[in-house]
Amino acid sequence: MRKLDPLGWCVRRELYIEPEVRRPGTVTISSQRRIDWIEDRDWINSGASRPVSPDLQQIDLKALIGHTTSVQAEARLEDVYQLFEKHKIAFIAVLENERVIGMCSRWQIGMLLGSRYGFSLFSRKSVRDRLLADALVVSVHSPLVSVLEQVDSRSEEAFYDDVVLVNERGSFLGLIFTRTLVQIQYRFLRQNIERLEETQREINAKNDQMHEELRMAKEVQLAMLPRRYPSFPADVPNEASVLRFSHCYHPAGEVSGDFFSVVRLSNETAGVFICDVMGHGVRSALVTAMLRAMVEELSSEAGDPGRLLSRMNRGLRVILRESDHLMFATAYYLLINTAKRCVRYAAAGHPLPLHLRRAPGLVEQLGARDNSRGPALGLFEEPVYLSGQRDLDGGDVLLLFTDGLFEAVNEADMEFGEARLATALVERRDQPVQRLLDGVMSDVERFMGTRKFGDDVCAVAMELTP
To answer: Which of 35, 56, 136, 439 is the most buried (most CB within 10 A)?
Structure first.
């Protein structure tokens, strides 16, 4: 806490600011024209209706002068003290002619002359010998911000000392109350806080609007996902279908860069598409919408996985060519023929699905032994995507997923990994596909502990019944 002057300086509202002509060796005092400092200067007025200058640099330091009382350096201390008593001010500038050489304080001289024998010993001494050691003298052209910084850097004892203002030649102009500077600083601080609060309210309103739009986008994106799976053959209920499906979908944010689709191509064939757009969020979600539209548009190519991915890559390249940002998507597409009990597939930089053979309890990657894996969509002009094929047995399960599933980490920053994923499938090989997938997700979440998925997660499981 800074200490106020014990003599109670700077308590009057009426101050004197017009100097008379100074004469060497004499006391210069102000005229009797009075002004009310607070009421006359709107930019430090505490009333909310008064305008405040928007910029500290716009304030003229001469307008801040509180009084212009000064003495010449050879003035006697008893005369200086009488001047203090008469005008109830705390500080007086000390000059040599027009040039400022320092400042003296009422408290300092009062203590000196009021001490035992002090008046007898020092009353006729010149004020030159009693200057304050750390008087702050600033030029009229100094930025107000710089003045405030200099005031703030002063010692505790000197903090409330007046500030001496001089012109470009070093001639005395007047003294500025530190209280005035503090009031200005407070007013600007309060106004800045009010502006920040208003800006924050505007940001909050825009954020609320953005969150509402993201919520709607999430609803639209979820509506794009399959709500019902096709049955095979078409005239049987899902529980009697030869091919049964299950999925999980966990966006890392409001919207996701992951997407999957399950479509009936014939009474015996299903097409399953899964993709993962780079990153997550709105931009990735927009690309997934484009890919979904391409899957529907290219339905004529759906019978050949490699050709479908080639056409999608070409279309995505045309769209992304206009973007300044690198974007790509990994994808996997497969066809399951329930009559021939086989699967055809092609990959575009996507994690390979896992093929669980229930009878022997074995898990292997689908497409690991052939050339069915090409680069991610959108990276190259004319990459080659080849189709692979594998036979299926009754009871086999295929699990397609995005990398967010096996890249989930625990508190020790260890990844769940594809090996644990394969083990989780084997441990649940006797469970129906819905319970199997739910159990795998429980294993991943248990492994993460208190951590959350750091990326979008999408997984689709399908089972060919015996």
So the answer is: 136
